[in-house]
Amino acid sequence: MSDAKRAICIGEAIVELARGADGRFALASAGDTFNTAIYLARAGVPTAFATALGDDPFSDAIVSLTKAEGIANEMILRVPGRLPGLALADAGKKGERRSHYWRDAAPANQLFELPQWSRVAESMTSARLIYFSGIET
């Protein structure tokens, strides 16, 4: 698909463990740009997602979710031996959602430094929309 006809979301996809009211944890994929890509695709906007992931089963699950949601994933770079970031979400004392992150070694942190990034960047010069969000540190 031509980039001129699609939105490209650039950012991080993470593995999220969310504690439910019963104390059990549910495994999901999250990240602000990843969620935005999903919402755009569900709204009928042709969308691609650009990030860096590992070569592990959790990264495979994120890529599978992009396919299931109709998001183009050829801009997802894979870095052998690395894992995506991890977030643990639970409720604070007042019931507010709190998130705790482990993502210092996530490959998305070095997305723009990866040798394959120039190929991805060149392919998005005529995109309809580029949505970018940085990783909080």
Give an account of the 3D structure.
This protein has 137 residues and is of the alpha/beta class. The chain has a single domain, classed as Ribokinase (UDP-N-acetylmuramoyl-L-alanine:D-glutamate ligase, 3-Layer(aba) Sandwich), CATH 3.40.1190.20. Helix content is 22%, strand content 31%. The protein has 3 helices and 8 strands; from the N terminus they run βββαβαβββαβ. It has helices at residues 32-42, 57-69, 117-122; strands at residues 7-10, 14-19, 25-30, 47-53, 76-78, 86-91, 97-102, 129-132. A 4-stranded parallel sheet has the order 5-4-1-8, with helices on one face. A 4-stranded mixed sheet has the order 3-2-6-7. Helix 2 (57-69) links the parallel strand 4 (47-53) and strand 5. The termini are far apart. The mean pLDDT is 91.
Widest beta sheet: strand line-up: 5-4-1-8
Question: Superfamily at the CATH H level?
Answer: Ribokinase
Return the structural class.
alpha/beta
Biggest sheet overview: 4 strands, parallel
Number of strands: 8
Count of individual domains:
1
**What would CATH call the architecture?**
3-Layer(aba) Sandwich
What's the CATH class, please?
A: Alpha Beta
Extract low-pLDDT stretches. none
Our estimate of the beta-strand percent is 25-35%
Q: What would the principal axes of the Cα set say about the shape?
A: globular
CATH fold field value: UDP-N-acetylmuramoyl-L-alanine:D-glutamate ligase
Distance between the termini: 34 Å
Percent helix, as a range, is 10-25%
Give, in order, the helices and strands. EEEHEHEEEHE
Averaged pLDDT: 91
- State Rg: 15 Å
Number of helices: 3
